[in-house]
Amino acid sequence: MKIFKQLFNFYINSSIHVGLSCYALVRMTQHMFQISSDEPIANFVFFGTIVGYNFVKYDALARAKKLKMRKELKIIAVFSFLALLLVGFYFFQLQRITQIVAIAFLSITLLYTLPFFPNKKNARNWAGVKIYIVALCWVGVTLALPILNADVSITLDFYLKCIQRFILIFVLVLIFEIIDLANDDPHLQTVPQQIGVKRTKMLGLLLLIPFYFLELLKSNFDANQLIVNLIIVILIAAFLLFANEKRSKYYTSFWVESVPIVWWILFLIL
Q1: Separation of CA 52 from chain center
Q2: pLDDT at 249 > cutoff 90
Q3: To bridge 177 with a disulfide, which of 80, 143, 157, 190 should be the other Cys (CB 3.0-4.6 Å)?
Q4: Is the confidence at residue 71, as pLDDT, over 90?
Q5: What DSSP state is assigned to residue 142?
Q6: For residues 175 and 265, what is the distance between their CA atoms, to the nearest angstrom?
Q7: How far is CA 143 from the centre of its chain?
Q8: Is-above-0.85 flag for pTM?
Q9: From CA 234, how far away is CA 94, in angstroms rounded?
Q10: Average pLDDT in the chain
Q11: Distance between CA atoms of residues 259 and 142, nearest Å
């Protein structure tokens, strides 16, 4: 049992789970836009997410010397380095335009983590913008990159999916912000800090309405997708309603981050 818990914690702490979430959204994008299996971009996003998230999570603590290199963290560091090598391998299999846009999102990740100017905070600590940066990056990586790499024409469906995907990530991040309310610096000006938990939940529930009905505007409307999306809306609404500061870290780091994976699995089944 102890070994299982250690493996599970490594799975979460090394960002494999969030990497699978991004991978699932890439696969959703490929299916929605009828893109034939494109392994390089899907694998690039999976390993890139692992490297990016581990960098964001552990870099600031390491630079502040608040991070003790325990055995697990050493393993995560080695694992992240191997993932970085695979990111490089798959990067050179992408289209040139995809590489350029991927570098742009890498720059946003660095801006999010590292202070670019002396005595200035990184973008992660800019008041009120964290949730928008995270949602924008997820939309770009899981939607724009696969579309660009497959050279798919940009149509109204693409923009509708961008809005829908942005709403999905925005609402999921709201749940994270509610859970982290007690620990977040007041200067971050997260949504719950600005409008309170009750109104944040109401905002999230209201945003799920356009998330669901945007599907009706697609040119290649699929009735099965409405069924899948309804299940996902109910699932997210439940996570949102039951979110509070007393929930364990697994509530968000595993269960909430599982939503894209569940969405993809349901999509494959139905």
Answers
A1: 11
A2: no
A3: 190
A4: no
A5: I
A6: 22
A7: 12
A8: yes
A9: 36
A10: 89
A11: 14
